[in-house]
Amino acid sequence: MKNLFLTTVLLTFFLSVNAQNFGIRAGADFATAKADLGGSNISENETGFYIGVFTQLQVSEKFNIRGEANYVNINDSELIEVPILAEYSLAEKFNILAGPSFGFLMDTADDENSFNLSLDFGLSYDITEHFLVEARYELGLSNLTKYDSATLKLHGLFVGIGYLF
């Protein structure tokens, strides 16, 4: 897992060298684990935090591609997430974000999958040229359990701030 984390950080660094904008982000993650165990549905909520880096590659005046590498900690569970988002300007300071997120759970048990594919969508608001606030929902698509008779998916609401250098 440490090699995966290092590879993710290095990849993000090299992408940011060619990026037009580079930033950091941090905030709270309100996570939900939803399980279906043979017809019984269980939902568990936890609050954690995230910190990460991002780049924005400008495609047009209103459209950017945003790559990120984030560390997420929720109740002693650690994840590395790499979202690749389309960022579209709805108005002068309001942006809509959407795209896939590739998550890697660290220290998984033998009966758990460590890869988590998700779909992220949300809004951001540019407070100034450098500061932004955002809220994003992450819809977990991957089944994180290896049991055929059960499903376990992670979802989360991310609320935080960012600083663009």
Contiguous uncertain segments of 5+ residues: none
Discrete helix count: 1
Overall morphology: elongated
Instruction: Please list the strands of the largest sheet in the order they lie side by side.
Output: 1-2-3-4-5-6-7-8
Walk me through the structure:
The protein is mainly β. It is built from one helix and eight strands. The chain has an eight-stranded antiparallel beta barrel. Strand 4 and strand 5 form a beta hairpin. The mean pLDDT is 89.
How are the elements arranged and paired?
Elements: H1 2-17, E1 21-37, E2 40-58, E3 63-74, E4 77-89, E5 94-106, E6 115-126, E7 131-140, E8 150-164
Antiparallel strand pairs: 1-2, 1-8, 2-3, 3-4, 4-5, 5-6, 6-7, 7-8
Describe this structure in a few short sentences.
This protein has 165 residues and is mainly beta. The protein has one helix at residues 2-17; strands at 21-37, 40-58, 63-74, 77-89, 94-106, 115-126, 131-140, 150-164.
Features of this protein?
67% strand; mainly beta; 1 helix; elongated; 165 residues; 8 strands
